[in-house]
Amino acid sequence: MKVVFITPASDLCRMFLYRLGSKVYGQRNSITGPLILGRILKDAGHDVSVYEELYANVDYSKIMDADVYCISTMTSTAPRAYFLADRLHKETKGRVIIGGMHASALPEEAALHADQVVVGEAETVIRDVIEGKITDKIVYAPRLENLDDAPFPDYSLLKTPCSCANVMTTRGCPFCCSFCTTSRMFHPYRERSVDSVMEELRYYKSIGFKYMNFEDDNFTANKKRAKEICRRMIEEDLVFRETFFFGRTDMANDEELLDLLERAHLTRVLIGIESLNQKSLDTINKHQTVEDIEKCAETLSRHKIRIIASLVLGIDDDGKEDIRKSVDFANKINAYQLQPAILTPFPKTAVYEQYEKENRMMTKDWSLFNMAYVTFIPKKMSPWELQIEIIRALKRFYAFLPSFKIGKIFGIGYGLRRLGIWLIAKIGIPGVNLIANFAKGTYIYKLKHMTPEEIIKSENIGTPATKS
Ligand code: B12
Ligand code: SF4
């Protein structure tokens, strides 16, 4: 059977400027689910290809003869996924299967656009679904107990650009922050054997990848294991030019770990700082203190591990001053990048349930759920004030002069990249203001000109609670 996997990207992410921006921001990398499922199907004799809309336009006229279309969903890409599913249903004879993060949270919604929906990790069911042996409209896939049973992602199936291999050595996270989707989707936390990870790295070296990321939600959750992986990378010459990973502030308590990370070139880490307000950290169930954050910043810089400071904007206990304090802190510690994200209540998370109960959701236009839009009524500021804070944060952080300082610390290449982001932020900010002022009917315009109650009414999602 001819099987085509599509990972959609929203209208915004398919724009030329966005693609250019993401090129400046870092290496192009792929989501691994479709490449793993694709390999299972290829090994079973099917003709498989995988497309990602994020990095290139897909020529749909070339894939209209497939027998099955497999579409992945995140929340922000769900509307595009449904559009493609409807179009493929109308214009082809192929079956449409939808899976991934968003479809797993809201399968009934996805089922309106698909022949079948798979909830959860699909490794154990994908072949039977494609070959018609499982026919349920909504298939609840049992989670993968032993991660070593999954094959490695097959990058030869990918027809769109990719310059960095993504490796998941674990699934899930032992913590459970109130806004986090992955710790729920991939529950409980599971680990692959270190041998299997090494074999995968060897495979990427052999096919010529220069860059490799560990995309585990929390790579250093098990420090002993993280150390073992780094140690073997160094011993077996499996070190890549640079490896990005997600970590938590608690990694800074282990000097040996930091030393090994540095030597294995795991030198760019996204740390969820989220907020410098202890009350907010407790509200989101982060299990992290302000002292942890400060210590982490200091220790990582000693080991030349560059921090991408991730902040969550709009936590109930945070006001504008708290957000600005966090941005200034990121500047003070010479964070390599700032990743400010507006708190986004993804379906099935604790914050989503809470805001639903409190009638604080302003929209369910899923395309806005990309962590750049205010989709709920914040507590300590108006929705527009919060929306503007993310822009202010970028402007405050990606300033012209600090780029030179960063260039001096991390090298000229990094300084230039930072200047690129500064330039993009500069073009982006007046752009948003222009839309907010003149593009009537857009969500940004509504945020600026309407009350939350008016927004909710116009987005048709129910009655708002009075803002406290
Ligand atoms: C790598 C990655 C990226 C890469 C590559 C993405 C791409 N090329 O599209 C980059 C960095 C570019 C990226 C971008 C974004 N990402 Co991202 N990303 C990830 C990450 C870290 C790993 C993905 C992965 O490989 N997972 C492991 C594999 C095993 O899981 P999987 O791919 O979901 O597949 C399994 C199942 O979902 C299912 N499945 C998946 N697809 C299909 C399809 C079918 C037909 C079937 C049956 C089953 C099925 O079976 C698979 C095997 O078990 C995840 C976090 C995570 N842990 O998943 C976030 C994550 C998916 N990203 C997220 C977000 C928000 C984004 C952005 C919107 C961020 C932004 N503001 O720009 C963009 C959107 C990109 C887009 N396509 O438009 C969120 C999504 C939350 C949600 N509920 O929607 C996540 C969960 C991280 C988080 N913050 O919680 N991302
Ligand atoms: S630490 Fe990170 S991955 Fe783990 S639950 Fe919290 S946000 Fe999710």
From TrEMBL:
Transmembrane domains' residue ranges: none
Residue ranges annotated for the B12-binding domain, each copy included: 17-140
Cofactor(s) the record lists: [4Fe-4S] cluster
A Pfam family it matches: Radical_SAM
Keywords, sorted A to Z: Iron, Iron-sulfur, Metal-binding, Methyltransferase, S-adenosyl-L-methionine, Transferase
Cellular component GO terms, alphabetical: cytosol
Protein name, UniProt field: Radical SAM superfamily enzyme YgiQ, UPF0313 family
One function term, GO molecular function aspect: 4 iron, 4 sulfur cluster binding
